[in-house]
Design a protein that fits this description.
Layout lengths: L1 H49 L12 H9 L1 H24 L1 H19 L3 H13 L6 H16 L3 H6 L1 H27 L1
Helix pairs in contact: 1-3, 3-4, 3-5, 5-8
């Protein structure tokens, strides 16, 4: 009779161990499915936003293009929506689910946002999004994006830095003119 108790104990332990192993596999699969679903949802939202953005918005701006875009309400709204969407990507991957989804930010979204930092026009739109948003773009996200912008200048080789000295001066001018651009943005909104 005593031998049967040991056998039942061993079988029960094996069943419990197998159940725990199976639960762990299912949990990993569920997390992976959540990552895929989150990525696809954010990607679909970005595709809708990107359809309203033009390539000129992502290039280093010249004053004529900046003024033309700032006068176009549809383009202004499209740029704001871009930053609201980027904020969503950052918030979901870095704040809501940092353990499960942080790789999405590091491997994908961060580089896309860094690309947008190359455009003064997009940075101006970010500043406006921060200014007008009660929820959409917060200060912490703004700081993350500005750090990405700063990394663009640091990540260059000495030769690239020398070649982009003019670019650095342009960025410095942008920082000085930041408040002026926001004022022009606000005036453009008032006149439409």
């Amino acid at each position: 009779m005593n031998n049967w108790n040991w056998l039942i104990f061993i079988i029960s332990g094996a069943i419990t161990g197998g159940s725990l192993w199976y639960a762990r596999i299912q949990t990993k699969r569920a997390k992976l499915a959540a990552q895929v679903d989150t990525f696809l949802s954010l990607r679909a939202a970005f595709s809708q936003v990107r359809a309203n953005l033009t390539d000129e918005m992502f290039r280093p701006s010249n004053p004529a293009v900046t003024e033309a875009v700032l006068k176009d309400e549809g383009k202004r709204r499209a740029m704001l929506k871009y930053w609201y969407n980027a904020f969503d990507e950052w918030y979901v991957t870095q704040k809501l689910f940092p353990g499960e989804l942080s790789l999405l930010w590091v491997q994908y979204y961060k580089e896309a946002v860094r690309d947008a930092c190359k455009s003064d026009l997009m940075l101006c739109a970010l500043a406006k999004a921060k200014e007008v948003s009660k929820i959409g773009v917060d200060g912490e996200f703004y700081e993350v994006v500005m750090e990405l912008h700063d990394e663009l200048n640091v990540a260059q080789s000495p030769k690239e830095r020398q070649l982009s000295k003019i670019e650095g001066e342009r960025v410095a001018r942008w920082n000085q003119e930041h408040s002026d651009r926001l004022q022009r943005w606000n005036k453009a909104i008032e006149h439409t």
